[in-house]
Amino acid sequence: MIDKLIEIGLNKSEAKIYLSLVHKGSAIASDLVKSTGIHRNIIYDNLDKLILKGLVSYITEGSKKRFFAQKADSLEEFVDEKQKILDEEKQKISKLVPQIQDILNSSDSKQDVMIFRGKLGIKKIILETLTSDEFWVFGVSNASVDLLGELFWKNFNVKRKHGKIKEHLLYNPDFKNVVNIEEDNLSETRKLPNELNQVTEFFLFDNKVAIIVYSEDPIAILIENKLVFLVFLQQFNFLWKLSK
């Protein structure tokens, strides 16, 4: 029963004291010390908490206080009051959330750099390019296919074409088109010279630069900064001119 009382919001000492009062009917503090094994000061602290929760009351007998457990349905009233407080807090939060989001969306508070780890993190970044009108990638390798799978890339290309998103791809020299990426009016590709083989992939979109390393523990760094984006785009254009 103590565990159940803890689940509804009492601490362990409160639960022990309350149950002791339930069994005794009433008790003074020294009786509760004996029955619960809890220190006298802690007994008084937790009796005060139980009184505030509406679960315990007391009368004064001379210089001593005698404590009583309130009727059983006081537990329901206690839980109802907790729920009422939670509902009020939820209403306050629902009004606060949009304000906080507005601040987070403001240019001064944007997070410039984020780090993603693992396959799901890499997918999240790549799929984010589908929210843009155009993106550029250099260092395209088969490592991305090995990690994410052919089906992921086939679905990605279907969604890209459906969204009419332009892509510009610079393949590594050893890239093999195992997912049959087709060049169309929305896609243009070239292959980097052998001496410019990249060990990472760089995705450029919406003033963001994603640097992806397809290692055993894949990791990606996403930088949101217009100046950095333009510098990498300039590098892409330079490599594009050198490629076939």
CATH superfamily of the largest domain: Endonuclease Chain A
Which range does the strand content fall in? 15-25%
- The first-level CATH class of the largest domain is given as Alpha Beta
The name of the CATH architecture of the largest domain is 2-Layer Sandwich
Strand order of the largest sheet: 4-10-9-8-5-6-7
How large, in whole angstroms, is the Cα Rg? 32 Å
Brief characterization of the structure:
By secondary structure, this protein is α+β, with helices and mostly antiparallel strands.
Characterization of this structure:
This protein folds into 2 domains: 2-71, Winged helix-like DNA-binding domain superfamily/Winged helix DNA-binding domain (Arc Repressor Mutant, subunit A, Orthogonal Bundle); 109-242, Endonuclease, Chain A. It has 9 helices and 10 strands. It has helices at residues 2-7, 12-24, 29-36, 40-52, 74-105, 118-128, 143-148, 150-162, 226-242; strands spanning 26-27, 56-61, 64-69, 113-117, 134-140, 166-171, 187-191, 201-205, 208-213, 219-224. The strands form 2 sheets. It has a 7-stranded mixed sheet. A hairpin with a 2-residue loop joins strand 2 and strand 3 (64-69). Helix 2 packs across helix 4 (40-52). It is rod-shaped, with a radius of gyration of 32 Å. The mean pLDDT is 86.
